[in-house]
Recover the amino acids of this structure.
């Protein structure tokens, strides 16, 4: 069983903001690691310092499914507020790329920029990163029509490689299809479609029931202890 316990209040907000700052600094460090050309002695010195910092962070941990970082209220126009550790959009994620998505007019739109730590073919993002981005777009699209889902199947067409260090445009939309949902997405680079595809999604409550994900406390106005919906 996995427990999600949304937190509230100034103390929870302060802690989340602190983790967001730490995560941003960690991502900046990862970008620096991917391009650094310093000598071996400097590398060893920095590595030693990082090992000590890692030990300090491991002194206390949180068993909550989102490490206690899901803080109410959430913003229905900002999917990342529901998923603080999401590896594509989560503000508290130490690994995510620079991706911003918003819900507007029944669609999900946004931008993304990939640095060299996401490199596949030289100068371009790895195809697996494009796939993760695609999955995130189709998963966020149902939120624009008030639904929470998970991806059942995903079809991707790679038309052009995504360039590094250039902003790309994101778009996704979702429609209901009986008990399932259908979504489609596009990623545009330099004004042209680079990655596109479709997905079939199912209600999130199906996964929660099978995986034993339990929500405690309140979220989006609901209270008590319930199965995630």
């Amino acid at each position: 069983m996995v427990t999600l316990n949304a937190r509230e209040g100034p103390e929870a907000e302060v802690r989340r903001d602190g983790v967001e700052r730490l995560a941003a600094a960690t991502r900046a460090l990862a970008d620096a690691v991917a391009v650094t050309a310093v000598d071996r002695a400097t590398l060893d010195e920095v590595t030693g310092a990082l090992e000590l910092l890692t030990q300090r962070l491991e002194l206390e941990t949180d068993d909550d499914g989102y490490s206690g970082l899901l803080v109410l209220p959430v913003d229905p126009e900002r999917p990342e507020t529901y998923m603080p550790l999401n590896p594509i959009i989560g503000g508290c994620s130490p690994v995510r790329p620079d991706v911003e998505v918003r819900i507007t007019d029944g669609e999900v739109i946004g931008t993304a920029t990939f640095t060299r730590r996401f490199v596949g073919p030289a100068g371009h993002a790895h195809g697996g990163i494009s796939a993760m981005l695609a999955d995130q777009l189709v998963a966020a699209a149902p939120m624009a029509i008030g639904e929470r889902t998970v991806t059942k199947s995903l079809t991707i067409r790679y038309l052009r490689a995504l360039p590094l260090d250039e902003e790309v445009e994101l778009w996704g939309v979702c429609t209901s299809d009986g008990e399932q949902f259908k979504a489609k997405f596009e990623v545009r680079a330099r004004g042209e479609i680079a990655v596109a595809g479709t997905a079939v999604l199912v209600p999130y409550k199906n996964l929660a029931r099978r995986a034993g994900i339990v929500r405690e406390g309140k979220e989006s106005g609901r209270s008590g202890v319930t199965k995630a919906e």
